[in-house]
Write a structure and sequence with these properties.
Blueprint (H helix, E strand, L loop, with lengths): L1 E3 L2 E4 L6 H6 E7 L9 E6 L3 E6 L10 H4 L6 E2 L2 E2 L6 E4 L7 E5 H12 L1 H4 L4 H8 L6 E5 H19 L31 E3 L2 E3 L1
Parallel strand pairs: 2-10, 5-10
Antiparallel strand pairs: 1-2, 3-4, 3-9, 4-5, 6-7, 8-9, 11-12
Helix pairs in contact: 3-5
Amino acid sequence: MAQNDFVKTFDLEDLTESFWKKVVFWHVQYSSSWTGPGFLIMVTNDRKRYLIGFEDLPFGELCLGEKLNPIFLRSKDKYAVEGNGWKRVKDKHNRGEAFVRDDIYKAFKEAYLSEEGTAISFLDDVVGLALGTKDLERFTYIRTVKFWEEMNKKHEEIERNKLLPEHLKWNPLYVNNIKDNGQFGEYAVLITKKDDDYRA
C-alpha cells in the first residue's frame, strides 16, 4: 500500500487472503445511467475502509465474484453469502447492496439504532461506530485515484479554455437595416441606444 499525496492508496494485489479474512462489511453499487459510475466499499475489523471505483477496473464490475472474491458471487439479486455468515442491510437511501458479517451484526444494529448512528448517512461509518471508531482509516484503489486525477485535469483544462465574453472582440454596429447591403446579407438589425440601454 502507498500514499498518493494526501490519499492512501492500495492495489488489487494487496487484497490477499489475510485481508479477506478481516472484511466485516461490504457495500456495492453497480454503475447505471441514473446513479453514474458504481463503487465497492469494504471495511475490515482493524478499522480500515477500502474504496474501489468502477471507472477503471481491469475487469467487468459484474465479475467481482469471479475476479475479486467469492463473497460477491450472486445469482440475479441473490448473493451466495446471504444467510451464510452474512446479513443483508439497507442504508437510509436504499443505495446498492450491503452486507455485514454475522459476528459484528449485533454491534452494527446497536450502532445503527443509536442516536449517533441515526445521524449518519453512510453504512460504512455506522460499521466504524460498531468497531469503536468515528474515523475509519481510508484507502482508495490506485486506479480510481488516477482516474479522478485525470478527470480533474481535463476539467481544469476545459475551464482554462472556456470562451468568455471578454475574449471576444466587440465592434460597433454602424449598419442599418439596408436591404441591398451585400456585406451583411439581405437583412440587418437596427440597434438603438437610449440611456445606456441597447434595444433591437
